[in-house]
Write a structure and sequence with these properties.
Strand content: under 5%
Shape: globular
Number of domains: 1
Structural class: mainly alpha
Mean pLDDT: 83
Order of helices and strands: HHHHHHHH
Helix content: over 70%
Largest sheet: none
Number of strands: 0
Distance between the termini: 46 Å
Length: 223
């Protein structure tokens, strides 16, 4: 079980590096707002992942990075959906949800600073809920038209749902042996692998290795 987790984690990290480099490379010819957000998201996730590994090696503890990870992914991917969403009411919902989520989490950590050293259930639910809803917004809005971000949205949706399912029990899982909780962590790592795979597929669907910027933002109904 541990070996499977190790290899899945390694594949996820490799895909994250590949995706980060590919999307960053495409910024040379495509300066779309949504692409800039995705590039910032990928670099942020890569930095957090590497910093987490350093903390594990030095201090054998990295749980506090999960809070930065969860919040960052929610805000950045939420900003991505805000960028590509055409419905005014849906855009307002995403905007105000992220603002309210930030305020709630700030107040919570001020009152209960000990939450910083354990999995925060409220943070996990709030952070992933907006991604689930925003994904449904996009998939619903594009029912009768071409879905430029179909693979990315499906990846985000599946990843967010599985992330909620696993991390809601994170504090319990962290207290028991890896042999007993391994299948759960394996499922979560698989969801991360699926997510990064969908990001990679999305890059090929949008750009491939064609050097021409024929997928610019002006071709899409993005405000």
């Amino acid at each position: 079980m541990f070996a499977a987790l190790y290899w899945l984690y390694g594949f996820c990290l490799i895909l994250l590096v590949i995706n980060t480099l590919l999307y960053t490379w495409k910024l040379r010819t495509n300066r779309s707002g949504w692409l800039k957000i995705i590039v910032v998201f990928l670099w942020t996730m890569l930095f957090i992942q590497l910093a987490s590994e350093v903390a594990t090696c030095l201090y054998h503890y990295n749980l506090y990075f999960s809070h930065i990870y969860t919040y960052s992914q929610s805000v950045l991917l939420g900003a991505f959906y805000y960028r590509i969403c055409r419905n005014v009411k849906q855009r307002k919902f995403i905007k105000w949800y992220l603002i309210c989520m930030t305020l709630v989490l700030m107040i919570q950590y001020i009152i209960y600073p000990s939450l910083f050293f354990r999995y925060n259930i409220v943070e996990i639910i709030l952070g992933n809920y907006v991604l689930v809803i925003a994904s449904f917004f996009y998939l619903y809005n594009t029912t009768s038209e071409k879905r430029h971000f179909a693979y990315l949205s499906l990846g985000i949706l599946l990843w967010a749902v599985l992330d909620i399912s696993v991390l809601m029990f994170g504090n319990v899982l962290a207290m028991i042996q890896i042999q007993e909780s391994g299948i759960i962590w394996l499922m979560r790592q698989f969801s991360v692998l699926l997510f990064h795979t969908m990001i990679l597929i999305q890059w090929f669907k949008l750009f491939g290795f064609n050097s021409k910027p024929d997928h610019s933002e002006k071709d899409w109904p993005v405000r």
